[in-house]
Write a structure and sequence with these properties.
alpha+beta; globular
Length: 194
């Protein structure tokens, strides 16, 4: 497994980091429900990544492994996603048949966020060529150490049921299920500080 010293947070590598996440989510059930056409996915997903996790770059909480083979965008307590940019992306790119379901998903996601200060992980992914190399574990341990040191809860939504065991192995617990219409399920998960 790579060493923790292989992790960096650097806004100068934002574009490469965003594309690593785009590659990592290319087969994600929720993302491909949102944008089933490959060209639409490739046009919309980079903007989505920036709106969802972009504040991590400004706060020094965008973590990448060596070679930007994997990335995690963590939002510190009190830092929010760019909801107006997300609204615009959804309005311009979604199939009108799923617009209402997406709005309900986003509303319920907001309702599941803890009311107390928490670290939020909107996005973590590895380049598919590097999956299974321990990079996600490295990124997760690095960030969760900070959560534990600060005594602050961590929160995420898993958009892929196959990834739930990974999060559980890092102490996250399922706290619900979010699904509307034809959408794949989203699984909100919470981890208390250790």
């Amino acid at each position: 497994m790579p060493a923790e010293s292989d992790i960096s947070a650097n806004a100068n590598i934002r574009t490469s980091t965003v594309w690593t996440i785009v590659l990592g989510f290319a087969a994600d059930p929720l993302m491909r429900w949102s944008w089933p056409d490959a060209s639409q996915y490739l046009r919309s997903m980079p903007r989505f990544v920036n709106a969802s996790g972009g504040p991590a770059f400004e706060h020094g909480t965008a973590y990448v492994t060596e070679g930007i083979r994997a990335a995690a965008l963590w939002l510190p307590p009190g830092v929010q996603q760019d909801e107006s940019a997300l609204d615009e992306i959804m309005a311009l790119s979604l199939n009108p048949a799923i617009t209402e379901d997406m709005a309900l998903l986003r509303q319920e996601m907001a309702e599941h966020h803890p009311s107390e200060p928490h670290w939020y992980l909107p996005l973590i992914a590895a380049d598919p060529n590097w999956v299974g190399q321990g990079l996600g574990t490295l990124l997760m341990k690095y960030a969760l150490q900070r959560c534990d040191e600060q005594g602050i809860t961590a929160y995420l939504e898993s958009s892929n049921p196959d990834h739930i065991p990974f999060y559980q192995s890092h102490g996250f617990e399922v706290i619900g299920k979010i699904q509307h219409g034809s959408s794949p399920p989203l699984t909100p998960m919470l981890r208390a500080a250790k």
